[in-house]
Amino acid sequence: MEDTVLQQFKNQLAKIEYEANLRVVSLKKPKVPMVLYFGRNNFSDNSKYLFLDACRNNYGFQPIWCSFNSALVRQLTELGLNAVDFNFNQAKIIALLIKAPLCVFTISPNESLQTSTYKAALAGAQKVQLWHGVGTKQLDLALTDKGEMTNTQFVSQLAESSTVDYMLSPAKTWDAQWREFFGVRKLIRAGMPRNEVLTRAPFDHELVGSFNKVFKSEDAFKILWAPTYTFLGDEPMWMNQTIYERIKAPFVKRKMKVELIIKPHPYDNRFEAENKNNPLIIPSDPDIYPHLRHVDLLITDKSSIFADFLHCDKPIVFVKNKTINETDQENIFLKQLPGLETELSLIEQAIESVLSGDQFIEIRAQQRDQAFETNPGEACKEINSYFASLVPELLI
Question: How many helices (H) and strands (E) does the chain have?
């Protein structure tokens, strides 16, 4: 037993020394003109659209998609796109990472890279955080007074989220928030890449990782219920099936055709097994954004999707959720929501009000302009063009 513990200790020391040396190598290794794009496990969110734009246009660097999803890597490779499977040939992956001048994240680098060895290999790269939308929730460094600061996993998460060098900030209203959440000083002013597809039809490959079809009926009034994540131990409000008929009731009264679809938050995929036979609930992982512009009414409890949906200029109903950790920072959405807020028990009356008259058209337009200062249709071009000017400066 003692020999086993001693050997484990020696192995751990050897790993620490190896990764320290790897960081030195990464910092000194000359870089080559490429940008690494990391996303969620599936093909979705901001990094997806930014990567595909870089593949369609020549910005002077090689775009590479990095993933632990082997099936996705095969699919992208078959489409002629550069993608690397991080499950195999660790030596080859490390050799790639130490040459990267710039890497892009949509979620936490911890979640994207998964291993401390890969993190060490990227020590010499500048890191860009796109995040996945703007909203009202507190994040990371803003949670130190609420979180358990003796929890090694929590502190590790905070440390890794604070390693980013650049942050995408679509408007000055969010600048202080990003500094509070991630301790970042360098900001890139541009729109959210995933919002481009809300303003136009999808380009080639933008449906990869998405649904073939979300709504069955072309002529129905389309409602999407997109909640934020459910805390452990809580029952998801969107699994209350008695609510479904109450949501539809105002349309039945008006003899209007209506279709309700519920897309849980990706962190709520633990509930998929018990909802697999519910025809209203779609999987949480696939990308909904290529279909979002067809939605007529969004129901949410302040998931960041609501801010993006402002580009669609359609009504929003907010279901109250007392468990959300809302930011203490100045936030335009905490002063005035761009839609009607209601208790879940009163959802029928809220939808009735929306159908009787849209009272939030001007507020949505004002908040859209405050939340997104640049052209949403130019987001990818603006960000990748910035990378094109930055990458040569990072080559040594």
Answer: 15, 12
